[in-house]
Amino acid sequence: MKKRIGVLLSGRGSNFEALADSIAAGRISNAEIALVLSNREAAVGIERAKARGLVTKVIPSKGLEREVYDRQVVAALNEAKVDLICLAGYMRLLSPYFVAAFPQKILNIHPSLLPSFPGLEAQKQALDYGVKFAGCTVHFVDENLDAGPIILQSIVPVEDADTEETLSARILKEEHKIYTEAVKIVLEGNFNISGRRVVRS
User: Fold this and answer.
1) Is 134 left (phi over 0), alpha (psi -120 to 50) or beta?
2) Active site residue 176
């Protein structure tokens, strides 16, 4: 039986496409994307998923309280029988109800070396702070913002001439690499969580 992945996105879905490419190329073995879901009808990622022949669903979130909305999303993911959920530019904070429904089965990728620079515009935050190294983080999701146990990180040196756009582009390349690796680790069960530490077994 292939492991079934649900992808949640709000925008262009480049990390979704990287995961889909990795599955197609066998870098993530014995897995398939069972559902691509968005809270925005205009999300480019949904059109890209349709072009790949994948099952898609849009559940508009506008005007709905967080848990009311999340109950609809959880129902859709359960209906798709997903084994793992990957957030790929999903611009919503998950409710405790959502997190409790899928313990240690929700992953997110964030364009900073957490716990530094959580939230929006992480690359701009890094540049404004003057750090010499930025990067990206794959972590388990809890009900707090960009706060769950860290699975993998990748470091990207900050160059003197960097703009938000140039730094973001270099970080994105690393995001695509480590998200694939983190999904493999979790699907294969090759880890233990000790406190906040994710230890590969």
Assistant:
1) beta
2) no
Query: How many residues are recorded in the chain?
Result: 201
- Which domains, from first to last, does the chain contain? 1-102 (3.40.50.170), 108-201 (3.40.50.170)
Which is the catalytic residue, given 3, 48, 110, 139?
110
SS3 155: strand
Residue type present at position 84: L
| pTM attached to this predicted model | 0.96
Bond into 111 cis (ω within 30) = no
Lookup result for tokens 């983080």: 137
Which residues are registered as beta bridge partners of 110?
137
Looking at the DSSP bridge assignments, the partners of residue 84 are 5
Q: Give residue-wise pLDDT tens across range 79-129.
A: 999 999 999 999 999 999 999 999 999 999 999 999 999 999 999 999 999
Number of H helices, E strands in the chain: 6, 9
Burial of 176 (0-12, 13-18, 19+ CB in 10 A): middle
Which amino acid is it at 102?
Answer: F
